[in-house]
């Protein structure tokens, strides 16, 4: 009897609870504007709710936020803003507010009662700005069911390439696999510069976890073994390995297994020792040298591990840490072998030429002479600079000097630096793939704090800037421009760079170039305004007129627009 009474009490309390829940919903701000308001009112009546209560609830809690937003938009239009600017401003504000107040638990209630996904979701994912917001939210709320559903829908709609950089998306095989496939197909056909630009996003998706890394490496290595003509595949595998190592992941055994190196324990032990210590030692190098100069050597691809070759070259050309002369010939021979020998070929001509060049150039670099002694060796160094492995050694040698604070003495400005910069120009002209390394070395010198007086320091930076301009002459424009844009230096230096570039370029200009170059010009607008030479002023004027329809110049408040008026 007591149990029956309890059940009756519970049953009678359900309508009251539901009525209270529905009334609270009707009393929420702007409930009358919600699409489901009629259904909620009918449900409220069905549980005994009074019509006058429902009407008063929605009327008293009407705020008109949507209408006020429309009114504000009309005011903005009246102030002179374009429709596109208003739409962007409102959209950015809404998305920013959603990002701040987003509650994943409330979002997941959409699926809590087995209801169908809201119709507005399909329209939402067609907007790039809305998808960007979803990506941002999904990175912060990886366990949110609604956001994960959105990611799947976005992938199904054909936007899988956008998902490549999302760590959260890699948790779903279907989403990850589609994004991985699209990126891989694209990367295999790119040139060096485009590949360099696209790599960060590819590395992010593939290295988001050990599972995605293993899957990616297995696919890439399988494809490379079946079609080794696609050289970019090997490069991609090495890039992914370097990314994981940079994260501190221990993936050496996995990499050795995928490449087949684990089947050659002696070679694997030698390379592993160097990679683990981040330095060479005579025992490992001699052992590797003997294996590769003996009968039936394993594939040279094992030696072409980028990290291993970088460490080997760095140690050979570091004048501050010389290698024992008793073992140097083994070091040089192994480096030449790794650089020049091809599997299955008995032709050792290129190897012998590279070894001879290394044997001549390495002692010059290790002596680290300056002044007339270095000047007398310049012709010999330049003569071998066309050999890639020699160029790499010279770059390591110059980097070691540029990174050494003792290098920046008064005497070095005349005895060493001009000669080292001449060698860098030689590398720039002969080896396009080494342009990133040259730029990195120049930035080491640019960022070095010296004890020179301000005038001398400024002149040194201008000299380094001239080498960057030399890089631009050989096609390495956008990376140099990105570095210049990020510099916080004297405006006169940036003005010098801008004028030099303007003398080299002509329309049509890419959007990427204009975006970066015009921002750089805005930073130095005062220095550009002070230009006195007529021909320089004409260059600036013609360039600005040629790109007058760019958004930066179309902005009536742009200082560059004012600059065009002043110069004109």
Describe this entry's structure for a reader:
By secondary structure, the chain is mostly helical. The protein is built from 32 helices and no strands. α8 packs across α9. The termini are far apart. 26% of the residues are buried.
Whole-angstrom Rg:
33 Å
- So how many helices? 32
| Overall pLDDT score | 85
User: pLDDT under 50 segments (min length 5)?
Assistant: 5-11
Q: Give helix % range.
A: over 70%
Task: Please give the oligomerization state of what you see.
Answer: single chain
Instruction: Please indicate the percent range of residues in DSSP E strands (runs of 2 or more).
Output: under 5%
**What global shape is seen?**
flat
The total count of strands amounts to: 0
Structural class: mainly alpha
Biggest β-sheet: count, sense, barrel? Answer: none
Through-space gap between termini: 99 Å
Brief descriptors of the model:
single chain, 568 residues, mainly alpha, 32 helices, 70% helix, flat
Layout: helices, strands, pairs:
Blueprint: H1 2-26, H2 37-46, H3 51-60, H4 65-78, H5 83-101, H6 104-108, H7 120-124, H8 128-140, H9 145-156, H10 173-187, H11 192-206, H12 210-226, H13 231-246, H14 252-259, H15 265-277, H16 282-293, H17 306-316, H18 328-340, H19 349-367, H20 372-384, H21 388-402, H22 412-415, H23 417-430, H24 435-447, H25 454-473, H26 477-486, H27 491-504, H28 511-523, H29 525-529, H30 534-546, H31 551-554, H32 559-567
């Amino acid at each position: 009897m007591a149990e029956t009474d309890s059940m009756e009490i519970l049953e009678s309390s359900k309508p009251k609870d539901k009525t209270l829940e529905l009334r609270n919903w009707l009393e929420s701000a702007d409930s009358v504007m919600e699409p489901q308001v009629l259904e909620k009112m009918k449900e409220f009546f069905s549980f005994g709710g009074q019509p006058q209560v429902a009407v008063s609830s929605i009327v008293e809690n009407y705020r008109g936020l949507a209408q006020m937003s429309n009114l504000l938009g009309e005011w903005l239009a009246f102030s002179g803003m374009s429709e596109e600017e208003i739409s962007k401003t409102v959209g950015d504000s809404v998305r920013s507010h959603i990002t701040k107040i987003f509650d994943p638990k409330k979002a997941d209630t959409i699926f809590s009662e087995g209801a169908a996904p809201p119709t507005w979701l399909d329209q939402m994912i067609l907007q790039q700005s809305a998808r960007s917001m979803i990506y941002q939210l999904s990175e912060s709320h990886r366990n949110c069911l609604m956001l994960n559903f959105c990611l799947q829908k976005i992938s199904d709609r054909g936007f899988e390439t956008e998902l490549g950089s999302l760590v959260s998306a890699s948790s779903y095989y279907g989403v990850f696999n589609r994004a991985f496939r699209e990126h891989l197909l694209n990367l295999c056909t790119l040139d060096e510069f485009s590949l360099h630009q696209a790599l960060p996003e590819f590395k992010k998706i593939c290295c988001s976890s050990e599972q995605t890394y293993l899957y990616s490496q297995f696919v890439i290595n399988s494809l490379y073994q079946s079609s080794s003509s696609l050289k970019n595949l090997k490069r991609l595998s090495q890039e992914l390995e370097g990314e994981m190592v940079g994260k501190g992941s221990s993936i050496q055994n996995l990499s050795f297994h995928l490449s087949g190196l684990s089947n050659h324990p002696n070679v694997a032990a030698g390379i592993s020792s160097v990679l683990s210590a981040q330095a060479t030692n005579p025992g490992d190098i001699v052992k590797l040298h003997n294996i590769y100069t003996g009968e039936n050597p394993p594939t040279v691809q094992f030696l072409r591990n980028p990290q291993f070759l970088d460490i080997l070259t760095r140690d050979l050309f570091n004048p501050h840490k010389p290698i024992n002369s008793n073992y140097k010939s083994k070091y040089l021979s192994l480096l030449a072998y790794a650089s020049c020998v091809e599997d299955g070929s008995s032709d050792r001509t290129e190897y012998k030429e590279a070894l001879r060049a290394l044997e001549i150039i390495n002692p010059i670099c290790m002596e680290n002479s300056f002044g007339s002694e270095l000047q007398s060796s310049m012709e010999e160094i330049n003569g071998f600079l066309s050999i890639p492995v020699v160029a790499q050694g010279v770059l390591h040698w110059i980097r070691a000097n540029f990174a050494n604070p003792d290098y920046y003495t008064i005497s070095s400005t005349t005895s060493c630096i001009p000669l080292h910069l001449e060698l860098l120009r030689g590398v720039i002209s002969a080896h396009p793939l080494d342009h990133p390394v040259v730029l990195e070395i120049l930035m080491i010198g640019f960022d070095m704090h010296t004890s020179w007086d301000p005038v001398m320091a400024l002149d040194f930076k201008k000299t380094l800037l001239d080498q960057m301009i030399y890089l631009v002459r050989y096609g390495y424009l956008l990376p140099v421009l990105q570095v210049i844009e990020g510099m916080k230096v004297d405006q006169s230096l940036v003005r010098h760079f801008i004028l030099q570039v303007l003398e080299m370029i002509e329309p049509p200009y890419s959007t990427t170039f204009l975006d970066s170059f015009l921002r750089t010009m805005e930073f130095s607008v005062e220095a550009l305004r002070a230009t006195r030479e007529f021909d320089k002023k004409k260059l600036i004027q013609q360039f600005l007129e040629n790109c007058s329809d760019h958004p930066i110049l179309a902005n009536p408040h742009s200082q560059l627009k004012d600059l065009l008026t002043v110069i004109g």
